[in-house]
């Protein structure tokens, strides 16, 4: 009962954050890139709810717009990793045998390489950009999804309803999509949630280092990148508010994932 209430609470928190970023233009009366040098480093309150930055830009509008960019990059990257992971893991788990062995050895070899190194290599080659950033994170983030899908397909291959479908001559594509993939959705959904939180963290980390989303595009990571010097001169609000939003968003996603993972774990144990 408590876990259900916690799940609902965190879903509401995450939903509020997502809706605020979606309707950012309606919630703020300032444009995120509008500069006003007469209001540089204004403290929170008055005409600017969360203050202004070193160029007089409204922090609240940039926080919402930056959230939209960060969540969009994470969403697109998760979609890319989901498609690749389901295809790779599904083929490996369903076919089995030598094909499964070769595909899993290749996957394990990729897992041993730190993803940050691969991302940095791709970034240098693709010259940055918001969509290229999403693609890079997605291409490097499908490994765990593939392993989960493979294990689910291997488990479901021995299920009675799958054996019955094979015996009645059901087409292979229908067995995979209608029986195996559909029954793997709960596990896939949980791992996708954790991948989403990881994608947000990667985007923020790379943008904070100055090698992520281009500086001209506001994102939570870029806001932290510019706030490094601002905090030293006492403008704490420029870095604190995006930091809080990042923390709450990732925390909400992880709590939701953990709450959904426990019933899934009990189902697998049963």
Query: Using only CA atoms, what is the Rg?
Result: 22 Å
Largest sheet entry: none
Q: Give the end-to-end Cα distance, rounded to a whole number of Å.
A: 21 Å
Gross morphology is elongated
User: From the helix content, strand content and strand pairing, which structural class follows?
Assistant: mainly alpha
The string of secondary-structure elements, in order, is HHHHHHHHHHH
- Count of alpha and pi helical runs: 11
What ranges have pLDDT less than 50 throughout 5 or more consecutive residues?
264-270
- The mean pLDDT is 84
* Percentage of residues in DSSP E strands: under 5%
Describe the structure.
By secondary structure, the chain is mostly helical. It is 76% helix and 0% strand. It has eleven helices and no strands. The protein has helices spanning 2-22, 24-27, 59-95, 97-111, 115-126, 130-139, 143-157, 160-167, 172-208, 220-232, 237-269. The radius of gyration is 22 Å and the shape is elongated. It starts with a helix and ends with a helix. 38% of the residues are buried.
Characteristics:
single chain, 270 residues, mainly alpha, 76% helix, disordered C terminus
Summary, kept brief:
It contains eleven helices and no strands.
């Amino acid at each position: 009962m408590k876990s259900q209430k916690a799940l609902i609470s965190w879903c509401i928190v995450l939903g509020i954050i997502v809706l605020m970023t979606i309707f950012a233009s309606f919630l703020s009366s300032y444009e995120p890139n509008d500069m006003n040098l007469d209001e540089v480093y204004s403290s929170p309150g008055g005409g600017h709810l969360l203050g202004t930055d070193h160029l007089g830009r409204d922090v609240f509008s940039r926080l919402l717009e930056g959230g939209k960019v960060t969540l969009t990059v994470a969403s697109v990257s998760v979609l890319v990793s989901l498609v690749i992971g389901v295809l790779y893991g599904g083929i490996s788990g369903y076919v089995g045998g030598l094909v499964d062995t070769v595909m899993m050895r290749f996957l394990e070899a990729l897992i041993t390489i730190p993803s940050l190194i691969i991302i940095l290599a791709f970034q240098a080659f693709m010259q940055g950009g918001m969509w290229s950033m999403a693609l890079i994170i997605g291409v490097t983030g499908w490994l765990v999804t593939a392993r989960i899908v493979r294990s689910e397909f291997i488990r479901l291959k021995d299920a009675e309803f799958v054996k019955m479908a094979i015996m009645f001559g059901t087409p292979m594509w229908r067995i995979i999509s209608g029986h195996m993939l559909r029954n793997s959705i709960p596990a896939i959904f949980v791992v996708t949630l954790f991948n989403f939180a990881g994608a947000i963290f990667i985007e923020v980390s790379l943008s904070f280092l100055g090698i992520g989303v281009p500086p001209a595009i506001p994102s939570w990571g870029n806001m932290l990148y510019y706030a490094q010097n601002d905090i030293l001169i006492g403008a704490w609000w420029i870095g604190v508010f995006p930091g809080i939003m990042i923390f709450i968003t990732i925390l909400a996603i992880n709590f939701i994932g953990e709450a959904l993972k426990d019933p899934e774990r009990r189902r697998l144990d049963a």
